[in-house]
């Protein structure tokens, strides 16, 4: 059974930091790119970041570049999203998902974790 589980969300003041984790099982984690997405109330889901399976290449949305860092620990089947200098506009439900490559269709999705940034 495939499982993708996000954790680490919470309530933080603007300027603060959070680290999200995405832990997966039920598929060969090393073979998959992992992406982070977010969806704020009343808005469409947007891609935040992605890390490839092959060479660890990383990609970021312009809105988070320089503030967020994605990394992976294949030994733990986990991808992290370190979020620094958080802004109220970062408030959203954050999802992670697995795909055969960044930019390819995502096969497996988690349920999401809420991040709320207060001003």
SS content category: mainly beta
The end-to-end span amounts to 40 Å
Parts with pLDDT < 50 across at least 5 consecutive residues: none
Principal-axes geometry comes out as: globular
Provide the residue-averaged pLDDT: 97
* Share of residues in strands: over 45%
Biggest β-sheet: count, sense, barrel?
7 strands, mixed
Helical stretch tally: 0
Radius of gyration: 13 Å
Could you give the order of the helices and strands? Answer: EEEEEEEEEEE
Q: Which percent bin holds the helix content? A: under 10%
From the structure provided, what is the oligomeric state, counting identical versus distinct chains?
Answer: single chain
Q: How many strands in all? A: 11
């Amino acid at each position: 059974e495939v499982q993708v589980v996000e954790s680490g969300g919470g309530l933080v003041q603007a300027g603060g930091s959070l680290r999200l984790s995405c832990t997966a099982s039920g598929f060969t984690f090393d073979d998959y790119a992992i992406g982070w997405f977010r969806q704020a109330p009343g808005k469409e889901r947007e891609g935040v970041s992605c890390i490839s399976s092959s060479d660890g290449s990383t990609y970021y949305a312009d809105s988070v570049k320089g503030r967020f860092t994605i990394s992976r620990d294949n030994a733990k089947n986990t991808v992290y999203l370190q979020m620094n200098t958080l802004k109220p506009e970062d408030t959203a439900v954050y999802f992670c998902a697995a795909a055969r490559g960044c930019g390819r269709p995502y096969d497996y999705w988690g349920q999401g974790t809420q991040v709320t940034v207060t001003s």
